[in-house]
Amino acid sequence: MKGWMGKFRALFLLGSLSLILSGCGVDKLSALKPDGYGAELLYDLMILSIAIMIFVFIVVMAIYTFVLIRYRRKKGQEDFIPKQTEGNKVLEIIWTVIPIILLLVLAVPTVQAVFDLAETSSDEADIRIDVTSAQFWWQFDYAGEEISTSQELYIPKGERVYLTMKSADVIHSFWVPSIAGKMDTNPGDNENTMYLEAKEEGVYWGQCTELCGPSHSLMDFRVVVVSPEEYEQWVNDMKNADPEATPDTQVAQEGQEIFQNNCMSCHAIGAQPKGVGPNLTNFGDRAKVAGILEPTKENIKNWILNPNEYKPGNTMPANLVNEEEAGKVAEYLMQLKPSEITPESAQ
């Protein structure tokens, strides 16, 4: 009896813990709270498939319970052998046709959703963005605009934004669960396409969902959804960003010189040629440093000095500058704010 009670307590504790933890998570990072056209399609398919499974479960359990009660061995019938029935065409037709109908109910909307989500851009006026994944960050190049960002993707509310995706190294996977489904990014010439269409303004989390190295779980990014008017302002501000602009303070000016001498071989600002590292045009507007750290001067300095401490396996070299120089570079980077449209303004 004691052993049975111990197992019951353990099972109850595990069930309670699972129920409590199911409510944990990050806002704007859930496929169960869709705020985009693609996410709504996928959510409806999930609900439909769950409803079908529940229906099948109830029917099977009802038949099982009926048979268990109706045909159980009764007292005094220990030696009784009931009539043996082999085959029943009516029943066989029923349990063959019903699954086919249920599969069709699920298959038709699924196929429709697949073709709908596979739509690609056919108009030069559409917003088209080239997405490049790398270990462990994301680059976003706006086609025809000469705008590049990293870690934060700005899009307008209510408009379809078409993405062309590839990888700079290994296979990654692009996923913004509250807005759309996921899509792999592959190395080489194999490009995949999808679109985003957000229905509400705000800042949405995205993640890599393909195991890609030791910092896979830290490969986060954000999609900043703003009004169409704010998006146009942001585009104009980014296009007019001057990489040679003189910072406001002496420390930042020294940091700019150090940055140009040590970091420009990998990074770019404004419409400068694309480097192997993230574009830093709007670094000062970012809500996160490296996608994971709070944007404080101390965090930026520590990231510059030892990036592998925060994202193991990334390719950014450490100790290119000393601690004092890193602080000056951090001061300069924090002043890179070409636009008033920021993630905070979209909240």
UniProtKB/TrEMBL annotation:
<feature type="domain" description="Cytochrome oxidase subunit II transmembrane region profile">
    <location>
        <begin position="23"/>
        <end position="121"/>
    </location>
</feature>
<dbReference type="InterPro" id="IPR009056">
    <property type="entry name" value="Cyt_c-like_dom"/>
</dbReference>
<keyword id="KW-0249">Electron transport</keyword>
<feature type="transmembrane region" description="Helical">
    <location>
        <begin position="41"/>
        <end position="69"/>
    </location>
</feature>
<feature type="transmembrane region" description="Helical">
    <location>
        <begin position="90"/>
        <end position="115"/>
    </location>
</feature>
<dbReference type="InterPro" id="IPR011759">
    <property type="entry name" value="Cyt_c_oxidase_su2_TM_dom"/>
</dbReference>
<dbReference type="InterPro" id="IPR045187">
    <property type="entry name" value="CcO_II"/>
</dbReference>
<dbReference type="InterPro" id="IPR036257">
    <property type="entry name" value="Cyt_c_oxidase_su2_TM_sf"/>
</dbReference>
<keyword id="KW-0349">Heme</keyword>
<feature type="domain" description="Cytochrome oxidase subunit II copper A binding">
    <location>
        <begin position="124"/>
        <end position="237"/>
    </location>
</feature>
<keyword id="KW-0812">Transmembrane</keyword>
<keyword id="KW-0679">Respiratory chain</keyword>
<dbReference type="GO" id="GO:0005507">
    <property type="term" value="F:copper ion binding"/>
</dbReference>
<keyword id="KW-0186">Copper</keyword>
<dbReference type="GO" id="GO:0042773">
    <property type="term" value="P:ATP synthesis coupled electron transport"/>
</dbReference>
<dbReference type="Pfam" id="PF00116">
    <property type="entry name" value="COX2"/>
</dbReference>
<keyword id="KW-1133">Transmembrane helix</keyword>
<dbReference type="InterPro" id="IPR002429">
    <property type="entry name" value="CcO_II-like_C"/>
</dbReference>
<dbReference type="InterPro" id="IPR008972">
    <property type="entry name" value="Cupredoxin"/>
</dbReference>
<keyword id="KW-0472">Membrane</keyword>
<dbReference type="Pfam" id="PF02790">
    <property type="entry name" value="COX2_TM"/>
</dbReference>
<dbReference type="GO" id="GO:0016491">
    <property type="term" value="F:oxidoreductase activity"/>
</dbReference>
<dbReference type="InterPro" id="IPR036909">
    <property type="entry name" value="Cyt_c-like_dom_sf"/>
</dbReference>
<keyword id="KW-0408">Iron</keyword>
<keyword id="KW-0479">Metal-binding</keyword>
<dbReference type="GO" id="GO:0005886">
    <property type="term" value="C:plasma membrane"/>
</dbReference>
<keyword id="KW-0813">Transport</keyword>
<dbReference type="InterPro" id="IPR014222">
    <property type="entry name" value="Cyt_c_oxidase_su2"/>
</dbReference>
<dbReference type="InterPro" id="IPR034236">
    <property type="entry name" value="CuRO_CcO_Caa3_II"/>
</dbReference>
<protein>
    <recommendedName>
        <fullName>Cytochrome c oxidase subunit 2</fullName>
        <ecNumber>7.1.1.9</ecNumber>
    </recommendedName>
</protein>
<comment type="similarity">
    <text>Belongs to the cytochrome c oxidase subunit 2 family.</text>
</comment>
<keyword id="KW-1278">Translocase</keyword>
<dbReference type="GO" id="GO:0020037">
    <property type="term" value="F:heme binding"/>
</dbReference>
<dbReference type="GO" id="GO:0004129">
    <property type="term" value="F:cytochrome-c oxidase activity"/>
</dbReference>
<comment type="function">
    <text>Subunits I and II form the functional core of the enzyme complex. Electrons originating in cytochrome c are transferred via heme a and Cu(A) to the binuclear center formed by heme a3 and Cu(B).</text>
</comment>
<dbReference type="Pfam" id="PF00034">
    <property type="entry name" value="Cytochrom_C"/>
</dbReference>
<feature type="domain" description="Cytochrome c">
    <location>
        <begin position="250"/>
        <end position="337"/>
    </location>
</feature>
<dbReference type="InterPro" id="IPR001505">
    <property type="entry name" value="Copper_CuA"/>
</dbReference>
